[in-house]
Design goal:
CATH class of the largest domain: Alpha Beta
Strand order of the largest sheet: 15-14-28-27-26-16-17
GO cellular component, one term: membrane
Mean pLDDT: 93
Organism: Pseudonocardia kunmingensis
Oligomer: single chain
Structural class: alpha/beta
CATH architecture of the largest domain: 3-Layer(aba) Sandwich
Keywords: 4Fe-4S, Iron, Iron-sulfur, Metal-binding, Molybdenum, Oxidoreductase, Repeat
Number of domains: 5
Shape: globular
CATH topology of the largest domain: Rossmann fold
Cofactor: Mo-bis(molybdopterin guanine dinucleotide); [4Fe-4S] cluster
Helix content: 25-40%
Family: In the C-terminal section; belongs to the prokaryotic molybdopterin-containing oxidoreductase family.
Distance between the termini: 61 Å
Length: about 950
């Protein structure tokens, strides 16, 4: 019987008296916590309620009647205990300690915390006790470390309280900070006493948030001074990057119209934590390269095509045939669009002129070519309300379902399998529910880079005893926290999971009652699994048969087990089959519908879940209601007051293909998408963008895709508008306006409405909240949610009572969302990838993300901190593969596939499998998607980003 199944035992209480007040608390409660319950505040320096107490600083000592004072943060209450927290003797002890600590502190006017946020806890204690620094002997300096671009280390201000150590270890699970030296020379150290900036520190800033003195502080970004919170305005919002959706607070300097600093905010999911992007990556919005006025392509710049040498394919460090020696026309360092090269091809226009042209040209193409001639790409970076309005515009204004967004490039196959199998494309439990799991599978994902705050909960769970099974072709840092690491060959997931399930069935570890009552098609699944004994699976996957058996037994014997997966599962031509296997693995063992169990595809962008929920998909109206279902379509026709297309629309990849075909898509509206870098086979995308009769791009920067535009509309960043966003947990949260848009830039929902009115739609929305109300009325999953009841932390959906409840954590406790309420098991046969290595292209390329960057880099590469930490493109290569090619670390090389080639630096990496390489896709100067294939999954229509054949060679 697992801990989750054990019967609850009565908790014994003890009664103590603290400063004359009697308090009864559960046995084991510390004096510090008990004192808080009766309103007695005990001063602390080393203690933080988020960490396990250690009693290092002794500032919290109290008199319990014993021979020595007790540290209140670690000493538990005892029945009948008499506690005095502020006797003259106790206060004298604290004053002596404060005086000794102050002796080595920098003067207030030199202290990095006192001169910025002015919340140095030691200085506050000293001031309260009337203790200064006059006449105190000072020790010799222990030095500063300014090597990190955004965090300053002042060892002289350090009091060795170890709060930073515990923040790094216990909260974030990064294990970077420790101590070095002896005696007075003892100081905090990063790794083996390396400079912070060259250590393995991931710059999450958790140590800064924990430090009570000026030892660890934030540096000013872009010369915006860090000031006390009382002098700044606090705006509560949500992080604009990955799907974890961390709650944060922006401290805004209204005098300068800029953000001074950001910090984590309490919320049931993220619990105040942030990563480097959330804490330091917000300054992109203030980039001088922001688009601020509508632009129209000049007549001389037709016929249409790419406008820069980079996007024409003439850059990448290669000289063109007609270039003279020494005249390198390659990509500029930093990898951003060259505005000086592109902007002369556009002229400034008024909003009315630009919007009139957009409406007129799209209407003309629609009239001439019919609804199928129009398509729209929306954005998962925009709010739920903007996603809803965009898909409504394409469907009601142009009569087509040709509307899609980046889910097609990340989790479309996961959604297809989940919708087919359990009737819902959303996760069945939260990332925090890992705390209730005995066993966790993390597969096809590198959450320490892609979802770092979620990964901190995974690492914490492991420390508490949860077993982690990590399954991936790359030995990312997650492997270092795993109990079992399975490094399978790329593209063999189906064979591996079939082998695991074969063994689970053989051992009788299936949940027969759950299968009988809550699933269908088990017998067909079992027949398929019979063909995948561990020995056969081992031959296909390269994983030892005994390891497959170990995984099967560990999973099958778990009382509660959950799967978290990423794009290593979904971005394959067999992505839907991969997800079908995970659904089957959970359901045949009964691991759905209880705490610590379930299916969780970790979402990539901040609002990819919400954009999908809101209907930004070609086959679904909002809330995954099929466009080809008559009753559903009639319901939306009544709500929207117009006839709707009964046919499913084209997906992102199908739209690109359609543009190159006679009678295909001729006009496009792109909102916040950059397919030139994000879509596979860049050469094909370049041809398609050039072939469009009309393209309007709405964005905050001049992207590679915007070079092909006829009209460019300056949009709003995440920080410049109100709206709701739905994270990977199904948590609907409000993002609040922090800054005004620059120049003439407008909020995206306003621009979409302006176009809608010009093509004849009578839209009169006055605010995002009005759009939210209309949207929720059409979405059963969002029922009961209101703009005003989301509160500061948002709400999980479904939610029967959002006024009093945070919402549903675990779904499918009694039935699935399918028509019959059962999980539909779909067997899958292993199929090889579409393109295999050969003598000319012997390596397998895998693409993905880095911690410091996000997608096509248009935001993160304009962030000072993020670009400073990770400025260059690299190909990660196994040492033996590098040695066979005579390549050294840091050497510039060429990577080529059957579709193109790029040049970048080599990074020798023991995390790669022999015969495999990895390239992040953020760097336009080494655009990985010049290499990738555009073969797609037949069900999810997602491209196979995770597998193509390449060669790496010296220049």
């Amino acid at each position: 019987m697992t801990a989750l199944q054990e019967p609850a035992t009565a908790v014994r209480t003890v009664t103590a008296t603290i400063d004359g007040q009697e308090v009864s608390v559960p046995e084991g409660t510390t004096i510090y916590d008990a004192a808080k319950q009766v309103g007695v505040e005990i001063p602390v320096l080393c203690h933080d309620e988020r960490f396990d107490p250690v009693g290092v600083c002794r500032m919290c000592v109290v008199d319990t009647g014993g021979r020595a004072f007790a540290a209140a943060c670690v000493r538990p209450c005892e029945d009948g205990m008499q506690v005095q927290t502020a006797t003259p003797e106790v206060q004298r002890s604290r004053d002596v300690l404060t005086e000794l600590l102050m002796a080595d502190q920098p003067a207030p006017e030199q202290d990095r915390k006192h001169t910025t946020t002015r919340d140095n806890l030691l200085f506050e204690l000293a001031e309260g006790s009337g203790i200064g620094q006059d006449g105190l002997p000072r020790g010799s300096g222990r030095g500063t470390d300014l090597s990190n671009p955004v965090i300053a280390v002042d060892h002289d201000a350090c009091i060795l309280c170890d709060r930073c150590v515990r923040a790094c270890d216990d909260v974030q699970g990064n294990d970077v900070i420790g101590r070095s030296g002896k005696g007075y020379a003892t100081r905090i150290a990063f790794d083996l006493n390396d400079p912070m900036g060259s250590s393995s520190c991931v710059t999450c800033g958790e140590c800064v948030a924990a430090c009570p003195t000026g030892a660890l502080t934030n540096k000013a970004i872009n010369n915006i001074p860090i000031r006390p919170r009382a002098e700044l305005e606090q705006v509560e919002s949500v992080c604009p990057y990955c799907g974890v959706g961390c709650a944060l607070t922006y401290n805004v300097d209204r005098e300068r119209g800029a953000i001074s600093f950001a910090e984590g905010r309490d919320q049931p999911g993220s619990q105040g934590r942030l990563c480097v992007k959330g804490r330091y990556g917000w300054d992109y919005a203030a980039s001088p390269q922001r688009l601020t006025v509508p632009l129209i392509r000049r007549e001389k710049s037709y016929p249409k095509g790419a406008l820069s040498a980079d996007v024409r394919g003439e850059g990448n460090g290669k000289r063109r045939k007609d270039d003279r020696p020494g005249k390198d026309r390659g990509r500029k360092p930093g990898g951003l669009v060259d505005y000086d090269e592109v902007l002369p091809h556009f002229r400034e226009a008024t909003w009315d002129e630009a919007l009139d042209l957009v409406a007129r040209r799209l209407r003309e193409i629609h009239t001439a070519g019919g609804p199928g001639a129009i398509a729209g790409f929306g954005s998962a970076k925009c709010s739920n309300e903007e996603a809803y309005l965009f898909q409504k515009l394409i469907r009601t204004g142009f009569g087509t379902n040709n509307v899609d967004h980046c889910t097609r490039l990340c989790h479309a196959s996961s959604v297809a399998a989940l919708f087919e199998g359990v009737g819902s494309g959303a996760v069945s439990t939260t990332y925090g529910d890992v705390a209730n799991a005995d066993v966790v599978i993390i597969t096809g994902s590198n959450p320490t880079a892609n979802h770092p705050v979620a990964s901190s909960f995974f690492k914490q769970a492991r420390r508490r005893g949860t077993k982690i099974i990590y399954i991936d072709p790359r030995a990312s840092t997650v492997a270092e926290h795993a109990d079992i690491f399975v490094q399978l060959k790329p593209g063999t997931d189906v064979a591996f999971y079939n082998g695991v399930m074969h063994e689970i069935v053989r051992l009788g570890l299936i949940d027969r009652e759950f299968i009988a009552n809550r699933t269908s098609n088990y017998d067909e699944l079992a027949r398929t699994l019979a063909d995948y004994p561990p020995e056969r699976a081992a031959q296909i996957t390269g994983v030892d048969a005994d390891t497959i058996r170990e995984v099967a037994r560990t999973w099958g014997e778990a009382g509660a087990a959950v799967v978290y997966w990423g794009m290593g599962i979904s971005q394959h031509t067999t992505g839907t089959d991969n997800a079908r296997c995970l659904i089957a693995l959970c359901t045949i063992t009964g691991n759905v519908g209880r705490p610590g169990t379930g299916l969780h595809p970790l979402r990539g962008q901040n609002n990819v879940q919400g954009a999908s929920d809101a209907g930004l998909i070609p086959m679904f109206y909002p809330d995954y209601q099929g466009v080809d279902a008559d009753a559903t379509r009639e319901r939306f026709e009544r709500a929207w007051g117009t006839a709707l297309d009964p046919k499913r629309g084209l997906t992102v990849t199908e739209i690109v293909k359609s543009v190159l075909e006679p009678g295909g898509v001729r006009g496009m509206y792109m909102l916040g998408e950059n397919p030139f870098l994000s879509d596979p086979n860049t050469t094909k995308v370049r041809k398609a963008l050039s072939a469009l009769e009309f393209l309007v791009v709405q964005d905050i920067f001049l992207t590679e895709t915007a070079e092909f535009a006829d009209v460019i509309l300056p949009a709003s960043s995440y920080l410049e508008k109100d709206g709701t966003y739905t994270n990977t947990d199904r948590r609907v949260q409000r993002g609040r306006k922090v800054l005004d848009p620059p120049g003439q830039a407008r909020a995206d929902w306003v621009i979409v409405q302006d176009i809608a009115r010009r093509i004849g739609l009578d839209w009169r929305y006055e605010s995002p909240s009005e759009v939210f109300d209309e949207m929720v009325a059409l979405m059963p999953s969002y029922a009961n949610l209101r703009w005003d009841n989301l509160g500061p932390s948002g709400k999980l959906y479904p939610n029967a009572d959002p006024e009093h409840s945070d919402g549903t954590v675990v779904m499918f406790d009694e039935r699935f969302n399918t028509d019959d309420g059962l999980a539909h098991l779909v067997p899958a046969e292993w199929l090889p990838p579409k393109e295999l290595p050969d003598a000319e292209y012997p390596l397998v390329l895998n693409t993905g993300r880095l911690l410091e960057h996000w997608h096509t880099g248009s935001m993160t590469r304009r962030s000072y901190a993020l670009d400073a930490i990770s400025p260059v493109a690299e190909v990660y290569l196994h040492p033996k593969d590098a040695a066979e090619r005579g390549l050294a670390h840091g050497q510039r090389v060429r990577v080529r596939s059957r579709r193109g080639e790029i040049e970048l630096l080599v990074r020798i990496s023991h995390r790669e499998q022999l015969g495999n390489c990895f390239i992040p896709f953020h760097f336009r100067e080494a655009a990985a998607n010049l290499l990738t294939i555009d073969e797609i999954d037949p069900y999810g229509k997602i491209p196979e980003f995770k597998f193509c054949a390449v060669q790496v060679e010296a220049l």
